[in-house]
Write a structure and sequence with these properties.
Blueprint: H1 4-14, H2 19-29, H3 37-59, H4 62-67, H5 71-78, H6 81-94, H7 105-121, H8 125-131, H9 133-142, H10 149-162, H11 175-181, H12 184-198, H13 211-220, H14 226-235, H15 240-249, H16 258-270, H17 275-295, H18 302-309, H19 313-335, H20 340-349, H21 352-364, H22 386-402, H23 414-426, H24 433-437, H25 450-460, H26 467-479, H27 485-492, H28 496-506, H29 512-526, H30 530-539, H31 543-555, H32 557-575, H33 580-588, H34 590-596, H35 598-610, H36 622-637, H37 641-654, H38 660-676, H39 684-690, H40 694-704
Helix pairs in contact: 2-3, 3-7, 6-7, 7-10, 8-10, 9-10, 10-12, 12-19, 15-19, 15-21, 19-22, 22-26, 23-27, 25-26, 26-29, 28-29, 28-31, 29-32, 30-33, 31-32, 32-35, 32-36, 35-36, 36-40
């Protein structure tokens, strides 16, 4: 509505670079009946003005970028450029006539490109677009066109990243046929978009949310979340999981020909978000080209020309790594979701695990080549390099794959499965059903299975490596569930116990996360296994070493309580066995002798109750409450519960603070009832890990909570009236 004269007059002064005038022309040429022929040349004038700024934004230090302004993109948006482009793109959807208007691919590309650049540089544009649900869903329909696929995918990814609520995949028109129209390369890129739609919005800090807050949230959310509905939608797309498994396991040599890859690189080159990646890729390419041309200079010039047309191997590898990352992430989320068993069946059937096993040395845990791709200012092992992210994603997948699921035996090969059977026969114990029932045609092939390969790299990992945590978690999840002697022996024979102790004691590991994962793994490895305790004693063979070990355990009980639980349970079982070997280990093992002292068990119990409170319970530290319960359940079996409670009362008096432990414990147990007696709660984990029936857990808690002050097993009998503070209700504050 502003006159052309006024715009011209203000243009120089306001440094608008003619953008408002160009937009006015664009508006005139894009009315409903126009043929858009002029639009493209106008966009060609606008585009460079914006892409320069976007390039500056991406390559500049992000901090500086926040401070500097991007006048061109701002002006473009201010004068309605963004809304106009959205209107042009969506115009064909409004027309009902038979003769549909066709917008050329190049025009679509230019529109998307400009929108993306504006989103990068101008605050709030992405959010505005995200609020337009019709536009977001419309963008998905543009993905059917190969020529505009990459631009569309990148813009969608950006928009979904800021969208407040997860979009519903069901709403995308013809989703199944859209996905089936993608080639493997496009499918991998599409996985980047899917990642946002199937993950819960704030899963990042799951362990950190208090259980009170989570329980309150669950009461509000009665139905499945959008992310869960989206997971189900994906699983219903025919052939979807099979294609993901193929993508995840294909070798680098199987990737498609050079030309489409080069074309994609060029597209990316105009596509800014990955300017850094491309810089690095190009550098790698040049290095390799120079290398091969110097090597072959004495032969005829033929070799030289072939290097030009062939893609350097490391670029192919990098490309493949970036694809696999996205695919493994999606598979991992699906494995942890509600349809876990269905996903497990499919993944096994499509041989994901043997496929990954074959890629292990060459791709997943490959040795870094001299010119491995590194982004500016990073080193090869920093957490954001694709190599590192792939390794972590791979370890997370293994963890969710083997956690409490019998398919975990697919991580072994046939000889290794036979070895498990042999261990069971030798020890005169029945084989685990899951081992017998494992379909041998789906297990790993080759010299080693995936689990043993993982153990090998785990032992070689440098002390300060960030992978140690994930490696330990992956191996621990293989042992989780009902304790299996054969599984433990399989790992003990490969020196795992000594490796863990070396890390905890000799290298005096300092990282809390890594220590926690090692203590958890050690607990699963040693539980009820007399041979493991014997090995422990052989390794920790001096008082000095034992003292370092105890210091590590005591430095943070939140991290080591699962190990304390395992030693307590094992000791209890060994004391009830009448076997010469067990008796010998019981008398010699430093760890078991230490734990058999009543004063030590009481000290652990006192501290475990003291470090948690109902208001601060999280998924991570609630295990301290369960460990303290295990100690008391074992006491109850021996009819020593009153003695333990009296001792706690005496310890309070020594600390000159009567009632503070027992009042807290009373509240914690009331919360325990609320939390674990919920119909959705899975109590099998507590049963499996302790070999104590859930009924006994429940009974013990209600005996402890009995309001009868004359009962010798009720907590209230040990709190003086004056210090009683047990009736408060929990709130989510």
């Amino acid at each position: 509505q502003i006159t052309e004269a006024l715009l011209k007059e203000r243009d120089k002064q306001a440094k608008w670079n003619g953008i408002p005038l160009l937009l006015q022309k664009l508006y005139e040429h894009s009315h409903p009946n126009s043929d858009f022929s002029q639009c493209q040349s106008i966009l060609k004038e606008i585009s460079p003005l914006l892409s320069m700024e976007a390039m500056a934004f991406v390559t500049e230090d992000r901090k500086a970028a926040q401070e500097s302004t991007y006048p061109n993109t701002y002006t473009f948006d201010l004068f309605g450029g963004v809304d106009l482009l959205v209107e042009i793109l969506m115009r064909p959807t409004l027309i009902t006539q038979k003769k549909k208007q066709k917008i050329s691919d190049d025009l679509i590309k230019d529109c998307l490109s400009i929108l993306y650049n504006t989103c990068i540089c101008t605050e709030g544009v992405t959010r505005r677009l995200a609020e337009r649900n019709d536009f977001v869903l419309f963008l998905f329909t543009l993905m059917t066109n190969k020529k505009t696929f990459l631009q569309t995918a990148t813009l969608i990814e950006d928009i979904l990243g800021v969208k407040k609520e997860v979009i519903q995949l069901d709403d995308i028109p013809n989703l199944a046929s859209l996905v089936s129209s993608f080639d493997q390369q496009q499918l991998a890129n599409f996985c980047r978009i899917l990642a946002v739609t199937i993950s819960e919005l704030d899963t990042g800090s799951d362990d950190k949310h208090t259980l009170l807050a989570k329980n309150a949230q669950q009461k509000k959310n009665l139905g499945p979340s959008r992310a869960e509905i989206n997971q189900a939608t994906l699983l219903n797309i025919p052939g979807f999981i099979e294609r993901l498994c193929k993508l995840a396991t294909r070798k680098v040599s199987e990737t498609t020909g050079t030309s489409s890859f080069l074309q994609e690189l060029e597209e990316w080159y105009t596509w800014l978000d990955n300017a850094l990646v491309l810089d690095a890729l190009m550098r790698v390419a040049n290095e390799e080209a120079e290398q091969s041309s110097t090597e072959s200079s004495d032969e005829s010039g033929l070799a030289n020309t072939s290097t030009r047309t062939q893609l350097p191997q490391s670029m192919k590898i990098m490309h493949e790594i970036m694809y696999k990352l996205e695919v493994l992430y999606v598979l991992c989320v699906l494995l942890m979701g509600r349809q876990r068993n269905q996903v497990h069946k499919m993944i096994a059937e499509f041989k994901l695990i043997p496929g990954l096993n074959n890629l292990f040395d060459k791709l997943i845990w490959r040795k870094h080549s001299a010119s491995a791709l590194v982004l500016h200012g990073h080193n090869q092992n920093c957490d954001c390099s694709p190599d590192v992210t792939l390794k972590i994603q791979f370890l997370r997948l293994l963890q969710s794959f083997s956690d409490h699921h019998e398919n975990k035996y697919l991580l072994l090969n046939s000889q290794e499965l036979n070895e498990l059977s042999a261990i069971s026969h030798k020890a005169n114990i029945p084989e685990v059903d899951a081992v017998v029932n494992t379909d041998r045609s789906l297990v790993c092939d080759g010299k080693r299975g995936l689990l043993t390969r993982l153990l090998q790299v785990m032992k070689k990992e440098p002390a300060e490596s960030s992978f140690r945590f994930w490696q330990a978690r992956a191996v621990e999840s293989f042992l989780r569930g009902t304790t299996s002697y054969a599984d433990q022996m399989f790992l003990l024979k490969r020196g795992l116990l000594e490796h863990i102790l070396y890390c905890i004691v000799d290298s005096e590991c300092k990282s809390r996360d890594v220590l926690q994962s090692y203590f958890d793994l050690l607990g699963e490895l040693m539980k009820f296994n007399i041979d493991a305790f014997k090995r422990f004693n052989k390794y920790i063979n001096t008082d000095e070493k034992f003292q370092i070990f105890l210091n590590q355990v005591n430095s943070s009980l939140v991290d080591s309580n699962m190990l304390v639980r395992c030693i307590t349970l094992s000791l209890d079982r060994f004391e009830n066995q009448f076997d010469a070997k067990v008796a010998e280990v019981l008398s010699e093992c430093r760890l078991l002798s230490y734990m058999s002292q009543m004063s030590m068990r009481m000290s652990f119990l006192f501290r475990l109750i003291n470090i948690i409170h109902v208001q601060t319970l999280t998924q991570e530290n609630v295990s301290c409450l369960n460990t303290s319960l295990v100690i008391l359940m074992l006491a109850r079996r021996k009819e020593k519960l009153p003695f333990y409670l009296r001792t706690l009362q005496q310890m309070e008096y020594t600390e000159k603070y009567p009632g503070f432990i027992l009042n807290n414990f009373h509240s914690l147990l009331r919360f325990w009832q609320q939390h674990y007696l919920n119909k959705d709660k899975d109590s099998t984990c507590l049963e499996n890990s302790s070999c104590i029936s859930f009924t006994y857990w429940k009974e013990t808690v209600s005996i402890l909570l009995s309001p009868d002050r004359t009962s010798p097993c009720a907590i209230v009998s040990y709190i003086d009236e004056a210090y009683m503070d047990i009736d408060r209700d929990f709130s989510e504050e």
